[in-house]
Amino acid sequence: MDLVFLAELAINGALTGLLYSLFAIGLVLIYKASSVPNLAQGGLTMVGAYVVVALASDVGLPLWLAIPLGAVFMFALGFGIERVALRRLAGRPVVMILMLTLGLDIFLRGVTLAIWGGTSRSMDLGVSYEPLFLGDIFISRIHLVGAGVAIGLFVAFMIFFRSRSGIKLRAIADDYMASWSVGISVERGVGLSWALASVVAVAAGVIWGEIQGVDQALSLLLLKGLTVAVLGGLDSILGAVVAGIILGIIENVGSDFLDPLVGGGSRELIVAAVLILTVMIRPHGLFGRHDIERV
Amino acid sequence: MQEKVEVQPILSMNSVEVLYDNVMMAIKGVSVQVPKGEMIALLGSNGAGKSTTLKAISGLLKAERGRVSRGEIKFEGTDITGMLAQNRVEMGICHVIEGRRVFEHLTPDENLTAAAPKGMSRSVLNAEKEKIYNYFPRLAERRNSLAGYLSGGEQQMLAIGRALVTQPSLLMLDEPSLGLAPFLVAEIFGILQKINQEEGMSVLLVEQNALAALEIVSEGYLIENGRVVMNGTAEALKSNSDIQEFYLGGGEGTDFHNVKHYSRRKRWLS
Question: Which of B95, B105, B107, B206 best probes binding to A when mutated, by most A CB atoms within 10 angstroms?
Fold first, then answer.
């Protein structure tokens, strides 16, 4: 195999991986504030995409307006989810909250199916499908745009978590009771993390909707997103970005080697192997927070 | 019990009962008054209801599925019995919960920032932090390392400092001496006394270490089985023979000054 082809696989893998990161950042945001992997992130991403498509093609708004409006709607939805569903569960075992997010995912899928039906709709961002040439290497433009969005969000959240509200969110993630004791509103903090994750879901939904069409399959991104988040360490945004790139490259390059041997379909195998091995070998992921034990 | 009629107490708790899970009664009619600017101690053994009393005052009961089922709690004349914990912090009640519970994955500096009340300007927050670092110079040295790696004493100082950022007028502490070496207990209690005197902050202190607590408070309540069984000035409690026997480690015929002397010597040796 020639080097240019390998480089092309790696670069496009990394870009696809950053799109997984885009999704995983949403998971990390919620995990950071409530220590729960949000199984509804796939559903939120799908709803985010549908809302933007509905605003753009059904209402007829231009995309530059539809996307921010969709983000505002999803921001409110995220807060609403905390208010209606999660608040009752504060302080309950994490497993119950996990089940709630699973239920929420099924619910969101049901709602979109009922409103918009099962046929795939297109996003139509207007990004050209002409590949971009970098020397001899083909690069997909939409993937490049998506990777840019992922990195932009990464930088924005790194700054956010150093601000006062960001520090309060991290405090909430550390200890609910201690947060209450100094007057931090845990409920509002968790709500904010859901709201921000829902906005991230709009970004992921728009980009992935453009790539694979807006339909129920968008919610299945959860599997790859979760793998990236776990590999990165679940509570590390930097981890989500780095792990996304790693998984993207392994998946793209690896499947090119393996597919001829197993006759295709090795992508899913690689993703599954990464998830299982991470949990077995390094449960905190690459950058995840360890529980501090003083010696 | 003597009533102080001339000034309204900053906190008054009248025959408060607390139920957990609607069935288990943790305190059975506790009445406690904290006069403005005073340091008061709640003494008693494990499970007597001291922590529950503090949680009833700070509103943290709700997080543990407890509630005040009878009685009322007044803070500066306002009934706060049903109020949310965060609103009580805004009013000026801050509770340093048991077991230090600092935000381990944040630095001490971030711990202090996290507790900043809504709308506190950056300059006020920085001034507040400087004040706290002045009280606890050890924290200043380690302000940028992870709080989880601080020593037990430093974590307790941080927990107190974090509470001070909320600018409380009533500071409540739950067993600040727990698991700390005697010289650290002396250091922390000394600082509490200084804060009480310099800022006029009222303090409600829950302690099992009655000996150390009675040295710095003006008045104490003894709680047993969810009830206040004794209340008096620190001097009166120290000289009470029952208290001496059960809480100060002195037996019959032991002179209290010897007890104190012994503990002081021990302090130096450790």
Answer: B105
